[in-house]
Amino acid sequence: MECFNGLFAKRPKLVQLPVTPGKVPIFVMLQLDWLSDDGQALRYKEDLKRQLTAAKTAGVKGVMADVWWGLCEPKPEDYHFGGALELCNLLKSLGLELQAVMSFHQCGGNVGDSVSFPLPDWCLNKAKSGGFLYKSKWGVTSEDCLSLSADRQQIFPTGAGGTRTALQCYQDFMAAFLKAMGNHVGSTICELQVGMGPCGELRYPSYLMSNGWNWPGVGIAMAYDKGMLQMLKDDAGMTEPPKSLPEDQNAMPDDIPIFKAPGMEFRSGTAKAFLEWYSSVLIRHGRDVLSEAKKAIDRVGSYPANKFCLSVKVSGLHWHVTHPSRATEACAGYNCCTSEAADAYMAIAKMLAESSKEAKRPILFNFTCMEMTNDSNGGVPKALSAPEDLIAQVRKACIFHQVPLAGENALEFDIATGDWAFKQMEKQIRSFSPGSDAMHGLTLLRLSDNFVRPESLQQLGLFVSKI
Fold this sequence. Notes:
Layout: H1 2-8, E1 26-29, H2 45-57, E2 62-68, H3 69-72, H4 82-94, E3 97-103, H5 121-130, E4 156-157, E5 163-164, H6 166-181, E6 189-194, H7 226-236, H8 269-300, E7 309-314, H9 327-332, H10 344-359, E8 363-367, H11 387-401, E9 405-408, H12 419-430, E10 439-444, H13 454-466
Parallel strand pairs: 1-2, 1-10, 2-3, 3-6, 6-7, 7-8, 8-9, 9-10
Antiparallel strand pairs: 4-5
Helix pairs in contact: 6-8, 8-10, 10-11, 12-13
C-alpha cells in the first residue's frame, strides 16, 4: 500500500516559468572548471549559456564563480582574466549577476573537488622553502593555501624582480581583477568574496581528506609551520602548542586530553592560552585580508556601496557542536570553548562589522550548511551534530553586530527531488523576523545539466516563488 499511497499523493502545484526573483536573491555556483586552463576563456561556453538561460527562468539572479589564483596569475603579476571577462559579458547579455570569489586556495582534495588547480608555482615554492604552509605536529603539510604566517613575509616575487608579502599579493590580484572587469564591477559583478583559507573559508585546514580524514573526526591543530611557531612565541610567549592537542584527526573529543570532558583542560593554563591565540590570529588574518580588499578597490575605482559588496565565507562545522569542547571548531580556529563567553561567531561578526565600516560598504557573513537539520548526523549519534543550533548562534552574532547574513547549502543535492532541502532552507530564510534577522542571499550547489532539467527548474521555481 505504501507505494500506491505515494502514487496518488497530492503533488505541489507547479509554478509557471519564468519566475521573477524574490526578495532573497538566489545564486548558483558554477562548476569548478568553468575557466580554461590558461584562465583566458570559458571552458564550455555554449553549454554554460544554455544552462544559464534555463536557470534564469526559475528565478535565479546570478552565479558564483571561483577565480582561481593558480590559473589567473601563472607568473608574478601576469594576470589572465580573459575568461572572467568573457563570463561577465555572457552574464550581462542574459541579465544575470556575478558573485566573484577570489580563490587564493587550491582546488583538489576537498569535499566536492572534481578537478585540481594548485596554487601558483612561484608562490607555492617560496612558501614551502620558507616554512609558510600550514603544518601539523607530525609534519603533514597542507598545500591548500598559504599559512597566515606568510601575510607579512616579504618573500614573494613581483613581476619586476622585487619582492612583496602575501597580503600584497592578494591586494594586487584583486586590484588587477577589478581593473580587468571594468564597468562590470557594480553592475554585473555585485559581490567580491574574499578568499581567506582552505576552500576559501576563514579557518585552518584542520581536517585533511587528502591525508585520510573521515567525518566526524575532530581534526588537528595546524600551527607547527615555522611561521606559526614564531608567531606563537612572539604573541603568547609559548615555544610550542600544548602536547595534549589531538594527534589523530579522526579522533573523537573524549579521546583527546585537551578536549576530554569532564576534565575540560581547554579552559585553563596553556591550553586555554593557545586556543585563544590560535583563534585570535585567524580573525586578525581575516581583518588584514579585508583591508587589502579595500585598498584594491580604492586603487581601481569608486563603486556604489549598494551595488557592490564584499563577503567572507565561514565554514559550518556542525559536528561535535553539542560537546563542551566544541573540538571540531576549536581545531579549525573557531573558539567557542575556553570560557562561558567564548563565541567565535560573535568575534568574527564584530571583525566584519569593523571592516565594513573601514571599507564603507557591506561585508556579508556567508555561512554554510543551510539545508541541514539537527538530525543530519548520518546515523552517527557520536557526531553530536547540531547545524540548526549553529546557524542560530551565527544569526544572533550577525544581528548583534548588524552584519548581513548570507548562506549556502553544504552538500550538493538533486534539485528535482530536493523538497526536503528547500523546506529547510526556506525555514532559515524566513528566519525569526522580517527585519535585520532576514537572510540577504542564498547560493546553491551547483550548475549542471541535471540542475536545469525541467523537473529541477519547476522545483527550484516553486522555491523561489515562496521567498
